[in-house]
């Protein structure tokens, strides 16, 4: 045996692999710069969202203004957290309201016209003047 055969091979670090190319070690994983640490990004995002939440500076959850916010906007997260807190406090009492807010709207051509609404209003006034109440639907 030669001396080289008995010499143990060098063990590379976790981020390097042995490369025969010019006798150098090459990085096998990209190094993340300190300014892009995930924990720092999340801390800053959470702090900004909390500031908006405590200042009540966010649109209501599921409102058109909330939907228009960018998904990375901390105000969107603050609105979501406010809704989650309301859900925790009031439970299923707000489920119907949220279902109505998120439900698709009827197209305008399927909604009653102004003339139909005026007729319904006049009928209601006539019934109230006569002291009649509308019959309840079965």
General description of the model:
- The protein is built from six helices and two strands; from the N terminus they run αββααααα.
- It has 138 residues and is mainly alpha-helical.
- It has helices at 3-6, 38-54, 64-68, 74-90, 95-102, 114-130, and strands at residues 16-18, 25-27.
- It has a domain at 57-103.
- The model is unreliable at 11-19 (pLDDT under 50).
- The longest helix has 17 residues, at 38-54.
- It is elongated.
Summed up:
With 138 residues, this protein is mainly alpha-helical.
Number of helices: 6
Model regions low in confidence, pLDDT < 50 over at least 5 residues: 11-19
Helix/strand order, N-terminal first: HEEHHHHH
Which outline best applies? elongated
Radius of gyration based on Cα positions: 33 Å
User: How do the strands of the widest beta sheet line up side by side?
Assistant: 1-2
Q: For the report, how would you describe the main beta sheet?
A: 2 strands, antiparallel
Q: Count the beta strands.
A: 2
Percentage of β-strand residues: under 5%
Mean pLDDT metric: 77
Helical amount among residues, as a percent range?
40-55%
Distance between the termini: 101 Å
Structure class? mainly alpha
Strand and helix map with partners:
Elements: H1 3-6, E1 16-18, E2 25-27, H2 38-54, H3 64-68, H4 74-90, H5 95-102, H6 114-130
Antiparallel strand pairs: 1-2
Helix pairs in contact: 2-4
């Amino acid at each position: 045996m030669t001396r080289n055969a008995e010499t143990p091979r060098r063990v590379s670090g976790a981020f390097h692999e042995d490369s025969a190319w010019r006798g150098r070690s090459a990085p096998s994983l990209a190094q993340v710069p300190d300014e892009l640490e995930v924990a720092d990004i999340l801390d800053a995002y959470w702090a900004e969202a909390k500031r908006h939440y405590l200042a009540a500076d966010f649109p209501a959850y599921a409102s058109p203004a909330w939907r228009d916010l960018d998904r990375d906007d901390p105000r969107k997260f603050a609105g979501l957290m406010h809704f989650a807190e309301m859900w925790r406090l009031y439970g299923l009492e707000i489920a119907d309201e949220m279902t109505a807010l998120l439900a698709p709207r009827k197209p305008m051509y399927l909604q009653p016209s102004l003339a139909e609404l005026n007729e319904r209003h006049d009928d209601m006034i006539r019934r109230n003047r006569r002291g009649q109440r509308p019959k309840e639907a079965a």
